[in-house]
Structures are given as structure tokens and as C-alpha cells.
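Me: Here is a favour to ask of a fellow structure person. Could you put it straight underneath, so I can go through it closely?

Assistant:
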Amino acid sequence: MRVAVLGGGISGLAAAHRLIERAPSLPFPLAITVIEAADRPGGSVGTSREATPEGTLLVERGADAFITEKPWALDLARRLGLAPRMIAPREGPGLRRALVVRGGRLLAVPEGFLLLGPTCALPILESPLFSPAGKLRMALDLLLPRGAADDESVGDFVRRRLGRECYERLAQPLVTAIYGGDPDRLSLRAALPQFAEMERAQGSVIRGLRAAERRRGREESGARYGLFASFEEGMQTLVDALAARVGPERIRLSTEAKALRLPGGPEAGWEVILGGGERLEADAVIVALPVRRAEALLRETDAALTRALAGIPTLSSAIATLAWRREEIPHPLDAFGLVAPRAEGRRILAASFSSRKFQGRAPEGVALVRAFIGGGGRPDPMDAPDAALLEIVREELGDLIGARAAPFHADLKRHPQGMPQLERGHESRVAAIREAAARHPGLALAGNYFSGVGVPDSVHGAEAAADAVIETCGRRGATG
């Protein structure tokens, strides 16, 4: 059975790897071809080693870690034999925390505040982030009745349960730093279903978060990584391991899939039109492309499927990575990074102090910082040249951490239309995509536009797509 995997990012590589894992147990052989338009696999995930006069920097082009609470990326890394190369964020006083901009100053996110709400009362009471009225309003979450909203936005949910201050000063910037968009448009059920379940099961976000913390503590007793993990040599380690396991003979780089057709009907198989007019025949196809590219590819295949994909909005973003000598930054950088509430009017979403977050990202005496630009409510970074965006970042970090000297290293990585927005109604849009795709035996879709923007969700969706293709191949084999 010939399987074409269109897209060689994390989703495409994970799908191809899953096919190879399952191949020995199948009653038929698999011939797998991965088609990737770029000159390297990995998509938005990758690490570069930058030689500078101050030493070598490890620069992440996309995600710098993955969450371990969702097990799929962690499980994949272990199956690839990468466990000895995995690392956890640094430990130490004033490290495992984040900062938030408040009135132009950087204040600590209260200990125990997890994305949308608090687990501990004392840090909230002591925090200067909130007014006395705002603190009291958060505590009312313990008394309020359960809500009954059908497809509530994240913003409406937080304001209803925990109040306006909690939303504006912490929940909004934390959520926007992850999803890039506007939490008032983001679907709670699609993006953060665990919080809807907390309210349903516990009647309170605070009680639900406390229960989750206790459960995590029991499950992680003796665990090595905690909530986040990466690799000694950066996230490129995962890309390289997947590409090696798939095999270079199966991966065609610098080759773009232009269209997808069924020239002889479903039983005759698929035809992938490649750049230059070349045709690749396949019995099954996994489309593991960003949603806008998947939409363009499938335009000749199914109008309803294309319309469903077009209904998922996307935003562009850019990541600026800058390095200074440590003595040039007066701020202690006593955190893993910072987030900027929309109300503060900053031109960056967030910043990550890479040299503090993970070991081995920069030489001793160097501060390596990644800043995130774009997202909902801010100018589209695709509209400005690199130099202008880097200057914006320099000015913002100059105000926030005192980095006013010229950095000795600065670069920019753009991700055009790379942030799918799981807005209200997203579950219906996904259902329409799956229904339309199911009309075409041997077609499966995978990507970060289904259920989440992180590496674990991408891996999970890709492996599910591979399993679905195998089932289709098995049914065809049984009837053929």
C-alpha cells in the first residue's frame, strides 16, 4: 500500500513514524513517501546553532519545549530512545515562575496561578497585581453556581468565574501568549476543555485546579521532568530522530504538493500533483500541512472540505531572538519569562529568557531572550521588514528589562498564518472537516488546527491519522 504524507513538519514526521512502527504487524507492506516543500524537515520546529564572538547559541525557531501533562510527545520521545537526552527547566530560587507587566513594571505571577486561576490563597492575597476587590471577586468562584453556557469564550468564562481583574491582568496575557489570539473569541471547550470540566465536576475553577494539582503530585512522584521538557541540544533533537527513523530515502525535500486528485475514483487511488507537474500515485494520503496550505491543496478535491478548512481563522507571528552580555541587562531575569497584558499597550506578546529557562542555550555570562510578536489585537508582523520588528523588540525589552545596549546577536523567524484560532464554534468546524474527509476513503488530515497548538497535540493527531489510514488500507486489502 502506497501512502503519501504531505508535509514534513512534526505532524507529518510523526504520522510517517507511526506507519513505520505499525508496518511489521500488518499483513501487507507499506511504501511511504513524505513530501516537504522546505529544504529541511520539521516545519516550524527546529534549532540552530549560532556561532558568535561570545560563544555558541542554541536558537529555537519555534517551540522550545513541550508539555508533559499531555503524554503523546513524551511517549514518542521515549519510543525514539531520546529519554537520556531530555532535560527539565532549571530549578532554583526565583526561576520556575513568570513575570507580568503591570503599570510598566514587571511583577511576579503569584505562585500557584495556573493559566486561568489560582490554587493558593496566600500568594494572591500578597500579590500587588490585584486590588482588594479583585482578590475578593476571585474568591467568589468558590461560591458561585455552575454556569450553563453552550460554547463559552475563554474570556467570558474567566470573567464569570473569577472576575474582570483576573482576566485582564493575568488570564488574558497568559492565554494569548499560548494561542496568540483574543481569549474573547477563543472557545473554552475547544482550547481549554479541562477548565469547563473543572466547573462541571467541582463546581469551581479553584477547587478544580487544586484537585488537578493533587492528582499531578501523585502521578509525578519521582518524575524527572515536571510539567515541561525539552532536549539538551534543543527541539531539533526530536526532528532529527523522527527524520532518521523515517529514513531520508522516504523524505522528499524541496518538493511542494500542489493539488490532490482522484482521477479514476476512490478505488483507483489518489494522484498528488507536485511542483513541475510530476504526479505521485498513492493508495492513501495523509495531509499534514498548515490549515491554509491544506485548504489550497484540497481545492480540487472537495469544495465542502475546502469551505470547512477556510472557516478556521489563522494569525501570523514572529519570534525575535536576541543576545546580550549579561552585565548589559540590569534586570535580574529571575524568571523564565514575561507576558504583557493587552491593557498595557505593549507591542510584544511575551518574552522567554532562554538562557535562564534551560541549560546549554547560551554560554555563561550571556543573556539569550526570545520575544514573540503578533497575535490578536496587535499589528500583523508580516507587514513590517525584519529590521523594524527587531527594533520594536529592542525598544520593548529596553523598557521592560533595561536591555538598552545593542545586542551582539539578533535574528527573526516568521510564521505566516501559522497560528490557527480555535474560536467559538470550532468543534462544529472540526466536525464538518472530519465529515467531509470521511467521504474520501484513504484520506486523513492532521495538524495543529484540530485540537491544540502544541507539539503533543500535533503528535496525537498525526498518529491518529496514521492509524485511520492503516484501517482503510486493511479494509481495502480484505476486500481486494
